[in-house]
Amino acid sequence: MRYIVDESCSSCYDVKTFGQILSRNLGIKIKNENNIDFKTTEGKKLIETYAIKKLPAIIISSDVKEYPGAFKVLEGVGSVENDGSYVFRNNEVLGNYKDLETGKVVELQKKQ
Questions:
Q1: Phi/psi of residue 67, each to 5°?
Q2: Structure pTM?
Q3: Chain-wide mean pLDDT for the chain?
Q4: Whole-angstrom Cα distance, residue 64 to residue 68?
Q5: Are the CB atoms for 97 and 3 separated by under 8 Å?
């Protein structure tokens, strides 16, 4: 699993939370997690390759297909890419995020 992050976005949701949700709720075993800063060459390439519009971004390898039940759930909040990778796109469900098109942090109201 790769996380593309903006380290300067202190109010953005913690991507590690997503990995914990996958493990706890969907039974997915995560072998490797890598944080990639969006300003790096690798980060820029991934943003372009997967047309990422919001950060943090989460890219899961095609191995997620080994968990058919979990994969069905994930399809509802992201996209399956040509290389088989899964990209989480529904940032709003996890918390504050950075909109790459506006450059601004979108702060969501907390539920009471």
A1: -115, 80
A2: 0.87
A3: 90
A4: 8
A5: no
